[in-house]
Write a structure and sequence with these properties.
Elements: H1 2-9, H2 17-25, H3 27-35, H4 45-64, H5 70-107
Length: 108
């Protein structure tokens, strides 16, 4: 019971935005992970790049804020990882598209 009470009253407990912010922020990497099943042509490269920058900035914020917010850091590390994977899928799809275009031009 003391452990639960200590967590409840801690500076990163459920009474604070240090807890609820990252909790709801987990929807971003979860949605990105679900999008990995979609075709790479459906990826918005602009939005994916913005999400990469956003997560990189907030990883630093989560590390330097006092009290240090490891919950938020883990969330943004996860989001950065999935967004970079999505970006790599888009780049590979573009390379494949460009190669097909070159092959079609070479046949003419």
């Amino acid at each position: 019971m003391n452990t639960l009470r200590a967590f409840w009253n801690s500076p990163i407990g459920p009474k604070t935005t240090h807890f609820w912010g990252p909790t709801f922020n987990w929807s971003l990497p979860l949605a990105a992970a679900m999008d990995t099943k979609k075709p790479p042509e459906a990826i918005s490269v602009n939005m994916t790049a913005v999400m990469c920058i956003y997560s990189a900035l907030f990883m630093r914020f989560a590390w330097v804020v006092r009290p240090r917010n490891l919950h938020l850091l883990a969330c943004h590390v996860s989001n950065e990882t999935v967004q970079l994977y999505q970006l790599s899928r888009w780049i590979r799809a573009q390379r494949g598209y460009d190669q097909k275009k070159e092959e079609a031009a070479g046949e003419e």
